[in-house]
């Protein structure tokens, strides 16, 4: 008969093997603060993954920037949010990476396209669930389902800014010579769209949106904001610096400042992919003798939510505001997300 009791290893014998450690081995090459996010141009990154209607949005995030932020700062099954989601880049990349997502967008046109992009992603096998809410993100805590407060792991977003860096161009046919026409280069003139405000109002609105994000984040959650400096009447507008200040005012803790490349990296060479107008502006400035450079990166500002939950009194104070008027659920009702607290009248509900 065998004795079932564990025996002490004999002297000189290694003894039983330890159980394998289920944690992934630490990556010997730590992630860098320069994100290589434009190895493929924007059009190639989007082709087949986004609907053609999305092209018209004047300031989309590069999909690789959203995907890098989501991979670095969240885990599969986490909830990712974008309070100014445009045509839904953050949400599309999140559901492809197995995260759930919620987005808010003020303009019905972009919100509808975002919902359609999510349906498209799900049709391509994306496993996450996503919901788009049309509304003014300055009222964020009042717009999203009540159960979402304190559950968001990651916010990825960017404020609208700098018309000079947006838009598409086409050649004009005119008698006596051609020119270029700019189109799809602006948002609506609705005053609730922060893009139609001056910088001070834009920053005040964005600070409010970040404070709303802080109320949704779980303790220690992450906020990633991309922002590009731009020039107004020849002067540099330091939007990234202003975003850092806005985050601190909103109660977020600055954690990192990274750079996302908008240029491809080939060996030691950067391959720029400027828009027609960026190139034109820099060439004209240089012809005037001003030493401008093409901007080939976006600043990525990373904040952390404080590591403790907000008190319920503070949450109630932040929830005070008008509800969103239309909730769009892209395809099926999310299984893992709580049911929306503010359900619109059925006639106003749009399924993509
Ligand atoms: C820089 S774009 C974001 C683009 C988005 N990351 C994408 O890839 O499509 C900023 C977006 O914020 C939206 N926006 C402006 N003011 C808003 C507000 N008060 N509430 C919600 N969205 C707003 C604009 O309509 C625009 O689509």
Average per-residue pLDDT, rounded, comes to: 81
Query: Considering the protein shown, what is the CATH homologous superfamily?
Result: Vaccinia Virus protein VP39
Count of spatially separate domains: 1
Strand order of the largest sheet: 1-11-14-8-5-2-3-4-15-16
CATH fold label: Rossmann fold
- Report the span from N to C terminus: 69 Å
Query: What's the order of the H and E elements?
Result: EHHEHEHEHEEEHEEEHEEEHEHEE
What is the alpha-carbon Rg in Å?
23 Å
Strand content: 15-25%
| Shape verdict | globular
Structural class, from secondary structure content? alpha/beta
Overall helicity: 25-40%
**Low-confidence runs:** 321-352
Summarize the structure.
The protein is an alpha/beta fold and 352 residues long.
Q: What does the model show?
A:
This protein has 352 residues and is an alpha/beta fold. It has one domain: Vaccinia Virus protein VP39 (Rossmann fold), CATH 3.40.50.150. It contains nine helices and 16 strands. A ten-stranded mixed β-sheet has the order 1-11-14-8-5-2-3-4-15-16, sandwiched between helices. The chain has a two-stranded antiparallel sheet with strand order 6-7. Strands 9-10 form a two-stranded antiparallel ribbon. A hairpin with a 2-residue loop joins strand 9 and strand 10. Helix 2 packs across helix 3, helix 3 runs parallel beside helix 4 and helix 6 packs across helix 7. The protein is globular. The C terminus is likely disordered. It binds S-adenosylmethionine (SAM). S-adenosylmethionine binds next to strand 3.
């Amino acid at each position: 008969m065998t004795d079932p009791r564990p025996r002490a290893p004999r002297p000189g014998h290694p003894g039983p093997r330890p159980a394998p450690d289920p944690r992934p081995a630490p990556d010997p090459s730590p992630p860098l603060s320069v994100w290589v996010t434009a190895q493929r141009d924007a059009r190639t990154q989007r082709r087949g993954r986004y609907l053609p209607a999305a092209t018209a949005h004047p300031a989309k995030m590069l999909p690789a920037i959203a995907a890098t932020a989501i991979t670095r700062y969240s885990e599969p099954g986490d909830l990712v949010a974008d309070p100014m989601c445009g045509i839904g880049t953050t949400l599309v990349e999140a559901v492809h990476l197995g995260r759930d997502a919620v987005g808010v967008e003020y303009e019905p046109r972009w919100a509808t396209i975002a919902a359609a992009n999510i349906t498209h992603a799900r049709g391509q096998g994306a496993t996450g669930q996503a919901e788009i809410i049309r509304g003014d993100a300055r009222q964020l805590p009042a717009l999203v389902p009540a159960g979402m407060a304190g559950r968001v792991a990651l916010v990825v977003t960017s404020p609208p800014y700098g018309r000079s860096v947006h838009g598409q161009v086409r050649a004009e046919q005119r008698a006596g010579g051609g020119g270029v026409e700019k189109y799809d280069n602006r948002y609506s003139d609705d005053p609730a769209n922060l893009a139609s405000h001056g910088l001070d109002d834009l920053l005040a609105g964005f600070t409010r949106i970040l404070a709303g994000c802080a109320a949704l984040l779980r303790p220690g959650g992450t906020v990633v904001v991309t922002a590009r400096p731009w020039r107004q009447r020849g002067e540099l507008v330091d939007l990234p610096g202003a975003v850092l200040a806005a985050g601190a005012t909103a109660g977020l803790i600055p954690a990192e400042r990274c750079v996302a490349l908008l240029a491809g990296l080939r060996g030691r060479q950067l391959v720029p992919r400027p828009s027609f107008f960026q190139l034109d502006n820099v060439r004209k400035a240089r012809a005037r003798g001003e030493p401008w450079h093409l901007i080939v990166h976006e600043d990525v500002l990373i904040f952390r939510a404080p590591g403790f939950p907000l008190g319920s009194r503070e949450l109630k104070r932040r929830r005070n505001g008008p509800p969103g008027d239309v909730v769009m659920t892209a395809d099926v009702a999310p299984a893992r997300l709580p049911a929306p607290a503010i359900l619109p009248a059925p006639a106003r509900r749009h399924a993509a």
